[in-house]
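call fold(seq) -> tokens
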Amino acid sequence: MDSFTRPQQQRFLAVNVVMDSVDAAAFLAAGLRRDVSRTSAMLSTAVALSAVVAGATALVEHKQAAAQETEPTAMAPSNNDWK
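ret:
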């Protein structure tokens, strides 16, 4: 990810969250149609949902880090300010 710019990293994370969400929905649908066993459907859906949570968390932290880099830093008052 270091070779990508910050906006590209955010898009990459966002696309991965969407892909993992689609995976979770597909696994759930396969379980409901009984294309796979219930156990397989539940485990696969749980893994995909954990990836959604991890990706969303990473995206939020990434956006917060970007916001902190762009906001101006507060300066402590100098001795001249107290006069």
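The two ends are 50 Å apart (CA to CA).
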